[in-house]
């Protein structure tokens, strides 16, 4: 199956491609990006080689959401990368809509979404370009709507599914419609107001803000109090040896 089209609730300036199966919607995004004239969501019912952050595999049973938004954003790569926060916020908004705002949704730096403190969703940003200019940005969303994976990395936040945690059953296509609409609203906020309102909204939902956390980048580990996220999206920790701004890491609680 490969269909494209729109429905009443779908954002007017976004396109949509629905696939039965693909290796990875992010990989498909990279293949199709040169031919896409408008922001486009690519959703697959099943991925055979879903990928997660830092080269990890992303397990993707049918009934979960696997979708990638392909954008052609203007601006320097560092600003484009702030869409990581736009995306996480939009996903948090979408979950608020489907749960009727019952709460329990928090955001874990850089861009995981937690439900009742456990991992419900991950986001993977990938881009291509040359000479300081990006040709496209792919924002991949993996949401455990129906099933939580059995296996997790040692020390990682345990996974959870929306259905298992709340009893709410929503199919991926319906969830995508809500997510696309929430994303369009947050993108408009980012375009109009820059990172400041996005940052403030993200911090208002941040998991473990003010608490001790560990940031791990390769073999390097930094433990400290989670102070804030700065104007560039860095994780700021107050450590025994001073304030540290960390651009990329995995966070452990
Ligand atoms: O490691 C993470 O937490 C990020 C996981 C991102 C998974 C999604 S599923 C849709 C898109 N396609 C992929 O191959 N990965 C992302």
Automatic annotation (TrEMBL):
Recorded E.C. number(s)? 6.3.4.15
Q: Write down a Pfam family by its short name.
A: BPL_LplA_LipB
**Reaction catalysed by this chain?**
biotin + L-lysyl-[protein] + ATP = N(6)-biotinyl-L-lysyl-[protein] + AMP + diphosphate + H(+)
User: Highest taxon of the source?
Assistant: Bacteria
Keywords for this entry? Answer: Biotin, Ligase
Output the InterPro entries linked to this UniProt entry. Answer: aa-tRNA-synth_II/BPL/LPL, Biotin_CoA_COase_ligase, BPL_C, BPL_LPL_catalytic
Q: Does the keyword Ligase apply?
A: yes
Q: Which GO terms describe its molecular function?
A: biotin--[biotin carboxyl-carrier protein] ligase activity
Q: Ligase among the record's keywords?
A: yes
Annotated ranges, domain BPL/LPL catalytic = 11-191
EC category: ligase
* GO cellular component: a single term: cytoplasm
UniProt-recorded name of the protein: biotin--[biotin carboxyl-carrier protein] ligase
Task: Identify the species of origin.
Answer: Roseovarius spongiae
Task: Give the taxonomic lineage as stored in the record.
Answer: Bacteria, Pseudomonadati, Pseudomonadota, Alphaproteobacteria, Rhodobacterales
């Amino acid at each position: 199956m490969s269909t494209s089209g729109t429905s009443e609730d779908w954002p007017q300036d976004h396109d949509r491609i629905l696939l039965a199966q693909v290796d990875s919607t992010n990989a498909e995004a990279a293949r199709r990006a040169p031919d896409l004239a408008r922001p486009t969501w690519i959703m697959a019912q099943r991925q055979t080689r879903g990928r997660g952050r830092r080269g990890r595999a992303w397990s993707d049973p049918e009934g979960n959401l696997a979708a990638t938004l392909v954008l052609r954003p203007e601006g320097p790569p560092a600003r484009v990368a702030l869409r990581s926060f736009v995306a996480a916020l939009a996903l948090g908004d979408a979950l608020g809509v489907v749960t009727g705002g019952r709460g329990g949704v928090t955001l874990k730096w850089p861009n995981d979404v937690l439900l009742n403190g456990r991992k419900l969703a991950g986001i993977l940003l990938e881009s291509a370009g040359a000479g300081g200019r990006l040709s496209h940005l792919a924002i991949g969303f993996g949401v455990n709507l129906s099933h939580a994976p059995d296996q997790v990395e040692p020390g990682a936040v345990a996974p959870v599914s929306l259905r298992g945690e709340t009893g709410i059953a929503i199919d991926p296509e319906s969830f995508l419609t809500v997510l696309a609409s929430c994303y369009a609203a947050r993108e408009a906020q980012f375009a109009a107001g820059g990172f400041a309102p996005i940052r403030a909204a993200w911090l208002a939902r941040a998991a473990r803000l003010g608490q001790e956390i560990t940031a791990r980048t390769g073999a390097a580990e930094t433990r400290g109090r989670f102070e804030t996220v700065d104007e560039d999206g860095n994780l700021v920790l107050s450590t025994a040896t001073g304030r540290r701004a960390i651009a990329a890491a995995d966070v452990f609680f």
